[in-house]
């Protein structure tokens, strides 16, 4: 599939993982630094590891966006692989948050 | 290094939601340049975009102003016109696919509505820009490019376009009031008509390409 569409799909996957958790005020609307800052501020998120993972994944996706689409280099592939690994780590963090929230309710 | 302003500030169609688009062209990664402030491209990548006639190259060639150059040399002007834009059909199909994926996600996943509506906005704007550039009507790079196509203008009510535009601002700049559930539902109900409009553009682009190839 087209690299541009793949990158949007990678963003979608990360946002779906993050927004799988019911945040206090607003979901995460995008992976720009300003959207992430807003999400952290309005929800008063104190989960540095999750915020760091989301920010890093976003930075890597923006890095890929400025790479040549014609020359999908080993560096490009490695970065795309890193984004996939980060998505798995984000999934684990969100799962932990859900479990913590369930314990707190109980 | 070269720095350019481009987009709405160069067209003069700024409003309260506009930000200033800045492009930095560099030889190598420069830690002083924040990707949150600048679109950062290498000289090599800019040259590639020019050679392939990429719509972003056309956008820069038409709507950019140099803000800084270490040597006063205007790099973008020195490149002249980009090559002829040849990928209109491919790009229009790509943005229709992107739109359909957002539509599908909105129908199946409850979360992420704002993001998906922002992708719908991106698809609508970009397909209109590519179409205007590829078909030879006056190229439009405006955020309202979908309404610069004359008889092919998008059949999108203003209230719906506003919801999509607000979603885009939230997704990219973290700015604005999130749409209410009723507004999201209204927007989702309007998407099939837009998809139909996009398919019409793809069809015209395909016909145009066939005629062009046979000449």
- Give a short account of the largest sheet of chain B: 4 strands, mixed
Task: List unreliable stretches of 5+ residues of chain B.
Answer: none
Pair with the biggest interface? A-B, 30 and 31 residues
**Strand numbers in spatial order across the main sheet of chain B:** 3-2-1-4
Shape of chain A: elongated
Reported for the largest beta sheet of chain A, the result is: none
Radius of gyration of chain B: 18 Å
Descriptive notes:
The complex is a heterodimer of chains A (106) and B (215). Chain A is mainly α and 106 residues long. Helix content of chain A is 72%, strand content 0%. Chain A has 4 helices and no strands. Chain A has helices spanning 3-18, 33-42, 48-65, 74-105. Chain A is elongated, with a radius of gyration of 15 Å. The termini of chain A are far apart. The model of chain A has no long low-confidence stretch (mean pLDDT 87). Chain B is α+β, with helices and mostly antiparallel strands and 215 residues long. Helices cover 55% and strands 10% of the residues of chain B. Chain B is built from 8 helices and 4 strands. Chain B has a 4-stranded mixed β-sheet with strand order 3-2-1-4. Chain B starts with a strand and ends with a helix. Chains A and B meet through helix 1, helix 2 and helix 3 of A and strand 3, helix 2, helix 5, helix 6 and helix 7 of B.
């Amino acid at each position: 599939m087209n690299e541009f569409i793949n990158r949007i799909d990678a963003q979608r996957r990360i946002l779906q993982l993050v927004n799988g958790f019911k945040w206090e005020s607003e979901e995460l609307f995008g992976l720009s630094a300003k959207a992430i800052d807003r999400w952290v501020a309005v929800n008063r998120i104190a989960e540095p590891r999750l915020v760091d993972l989301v920010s890093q994944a976003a930075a890597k996706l923006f890095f890929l966006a400025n790479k040549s689409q014609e020359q999908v280099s080993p560096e490009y592939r490695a970065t795309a692989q890193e984004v996939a690994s980060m998505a798995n780590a984000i999934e684990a963090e969100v799962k932990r948050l859900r479990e913590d929230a369930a314990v707190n309710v109980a | 290094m070269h720095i350019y302003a481009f987009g709405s500030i160069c067209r003069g169609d700024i409003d309260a939601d506009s930000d200033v688009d800045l492009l930095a062209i560099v030889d190598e990664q420069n830690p002083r340049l924040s990707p949150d402030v600048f679109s950062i491209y290498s000289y090599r990548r800019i040259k590639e975009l020019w050679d392939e006639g990429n719509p972003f190259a056309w956008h820069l060639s038409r709507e950019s102003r140099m803000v800084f150059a270490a040597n006063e040399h205007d790099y973008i002007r020195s490149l002249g016109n980009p090559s002829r834009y040849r990928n209109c059909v491919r790009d229009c199909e790509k943005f229709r696919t992107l739109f359909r994926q957002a539509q599908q996600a909105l129908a199946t996943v409850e979360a992420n509505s704002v993001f998906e509506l922002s992708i719908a906005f991106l698809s609508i704007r970009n397909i209109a820009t590519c179409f205007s550039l590829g078909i030879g009507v006056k190229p439009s790079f405006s955020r309202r490019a979908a309404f610069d196509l004359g008889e092919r203008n998008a059949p999108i009510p203003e209230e719906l376009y506003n919801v999509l535009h607000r979603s885009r601002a939230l997704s990219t700049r973290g700015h604005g009031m999130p749409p209410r559930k009723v507004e999201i539902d209204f927007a989702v109900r309007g998407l099939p008509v837009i998809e139909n409009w996009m398919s019409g553009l793809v069809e015209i682009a395909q016909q145009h390409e066939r005629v062009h190839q046979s000449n």
